[in-house]
Prior knowledge:
By secondary structure, this protein is an alpha+beta fold. The protein has five helices and eleven strands. It has one domain (5-185). The protein has helices at residues 15-18, 26-36, 100-104, 138-165, 174-185, and strands spanning 5-7, 44-47, 63-65, 68-74, 76-77, 81-82, 85-86, 91-92, 107-111, 117-122, 135-137. The model has no long low-confidence stretch (mean pLDDT 90).
Amino acid sequence: MGRRTVRFRCHHCLHCCTDVVALPTPIDVIRLVEATGRPPHEFVEFLGPDDLSDVDADDPTWLRIGDRRYIMALRRDAKKGCVFLDRKRAKCTVYDARPILCRLFPFKLQETRDGAFRGFALHQDVGCPRHQDGVVATEPLYALYREDCRHQDDYESLVRVFNRRARAGTRPEEFLTLFYEEVRSG
């Protein structure tokens, strides 16, 4: 763990692009639309609790339609991985526009008991080999973390609006329309 640096270097094993479900925020989705020119329904899917074991039932980003729950994720194929992964070149095709959580992986924020920033460490419970033959500065990671917190607050607000409006027959994909309207009008 480090307050100023974390020992890590990516060896492009592709674990994060093939085995990790990326959960973008609406701002991430908008950034991807702007970078690719593709509509979000081409690269976003909505997963249920059976598809995600690591998301708590009370997570505020669950879209609730009747007794069903859905969460927004980047579309992926079980064998090929993320929709934006170029397997031949072992590279992300939207690297500069990728979601913030992708940028933060495999780092984990460490805080003191009173919530103050303590540093970053590598997640221990992920399949990334966590090679420690490089050095990553924590200041840019912390800036990304703070930005993601702001985006998560906005995301949770949009989910609350969606959940209040959802009726029988509502499809989770309608959430995409909701946040586009909010962004365009705001």
